[in-house]
Amino acid sequence: MAGVQFKISLPSPPQDPGHTSHSDCSSCSFQKSVMTTFAKSSFDALSYMNFRPSYNKLAMQSFLQHHHGDRLLAVDLGCGPGTATLLLTDCFDQVIGIDPSDSMLVTARSTAKAKGITNVDFVQGSDHKLPLADHSVDLLTIAQSLHWFDPTLFLPEAKRVLKPSGTLVAWGYMYGEIDGHSDLLRQLGRHTTLADYWEPGRTIAEGGCISWLPLFQQYFGHVQHFSYPTKLTPMSQIQHPPWMDPSELTYPGLVQYTKTWSCYKNWKDDPANANQPDVIDAFFQANLRHTSESTYRIQWPHSIILAQFE
Ligand SMILES: C[S@@+](CC[C@H](N)C(=O)[O-])C[C@H]1O[C@@H](n2cnc3c(N)ncnc32)[C@H](O)[C@@H]1O
């Protein structure tokens, strides 16, 4: 199946005549409605791709065991630089990554090209209006993006585009836990000035989006929840083996990872911080003994919602 390519026609996202890109376009309703930190043209999508954790191949195998429909079309919504999207290209005839952010899409396309992957398209769109035909999608994945969505708009769209035999898998990870410093990243995100710069969906993400399980149950007849390393709800099953890579980070890698957080981008963009010492550098200098050679073992607690119509 991998590498088999067939043409599908993709309607364009809604746009005014003459628009080819939506970033920084203040008059455009599409961009205004989905503008996020990651959609700013100054956002560094390459750094995001290089320093964020990724999902291992076991993740794909693990949820594909639950998917009994076709493997013609998989869609990864909120695809970012294509971290999960590209993993799907081995398992589906055609894969589409959708994201509102130009810089994420540019990075995703160039990564696919560099890897010689031809059965993938990256298109602009958002949770509330998917550029996809009714009942056309076999698998819809959402990796670390659900908390950016409006579930009341997204869930009807998911129901519209999925085939009756389709599967929706939404997963995300919480603060990574460093061996011997398990609370350090949580401290950085919650108890420094960065805490004021997260988007509203952050609290939902930190809880593994489990508060949305009842909403999923309204739209899907069969909803399962998996989590690692502990059960997040009574209905949860422990996810083994864990999905996330890497299990070890260098000191520079750790710092660079935290600098991909949207709150850090927002903090940097706030003129009030122009003359402040870098909040992340200062935090690690004060709280983590290190040399530039230091490495840290890390585990990534994660949460997975798997939803099917029956
Ligand atoms: C934390 S990143 C996750 C990227 C990638 N899926 C990953 O696993 O690393 C969240 C992504 O969701 C996208 N996003 C934000 N709001 C969105 C929306 N309303 N609809 C679809 N995607 C959205 C952002 O542009 C960003 O690329």
Automatic annotation (TrEMBL):
A Pfam cross-reference name: Methyltransf_11
Residue ranges of coiled coil: none
Methyltransferase type domain mapped to chain residues: 75-169
Transmembrane segments: none
Protein keywords: Methyltransferase, Transferase
Gene Ontology terms describing biological process: methylation
InterPro entries noted in UniProt: Diverse_substrate_MTase, Methyltransf_11, SAM-dependent_MTases_sf
Ranges for region Disordered: 1-23
Domain of life of the source: Eukaryota
GO MF, one annotated term: S-adenosylmethionine-dependent methyltransferase activity
Entry's family note: Belongs to the methyltransferase superfamily.
Name of this chain's protein: S-adenosyl-L-methionine-dependent methyltransferase
Lineage per the UniProt record: Eukaryota, Fungi, Fungi incertae sedis, Mucoromycota, Mucoromycotina
